[in-house]
Design brief:
Distance between the termini: 43 Å
Structural class: mainly alpha
Shape: elongated
Radius of gyration: 21 Å
Number of helices: 5
Helix content: 40-55%
Largest sheet: none
Number of domains: 1
């Protein structure tokens, strides 16, 4: 049985995983349109994002989450259509294209 120890020493709190997780700043990366590849901001906003929304609207259940890798692949296909001359690999982690599209779709 777990018990609460009154006046527990502060040193013990430093070894608590729960407390460390709750009090440690996460290494979260945020992106803005300025982080997109040069020259893509307007088409990203006006063409790519609506295409992504329209594509998801064709799905039988657009709210059913697909895997991140599938989402990245589908987004890569749309990127290549909208920006055929701008090479970019859509990645699940640390990619402004993936992050911004997913944030806009969820929001």
């Amino acid at each position: 049985m777990l018990e609460i120890i009154p006046n527990a020493p502060a040193a013990r709190l430093k070894t608590s995983t729960t407390i460390r997780t709750a009090t440690t700043a996460s290494a979260r990366v945020t992106f803005t349109n300025a982080d997109l590849p040069l020259g893509t901001q307007a088409l990203f906003r006006d063409v790519l994002t609506p295409m992504w929304r329209d594509y998801n609207g064709t799905l039988e259940n657009p709210w059913e989450a697909s895997t991140a890798e599938t989402t990245a692949y589908e987004l890569q296909v749309i990127w290549d259509l909208v920006f055929p001359k701008i090479e970019h690999v859509v990645a699940v982690h640390d990619d402004p294209v993936y992050t911004l599209v997913c944030l806009r779709f969820i929001a």
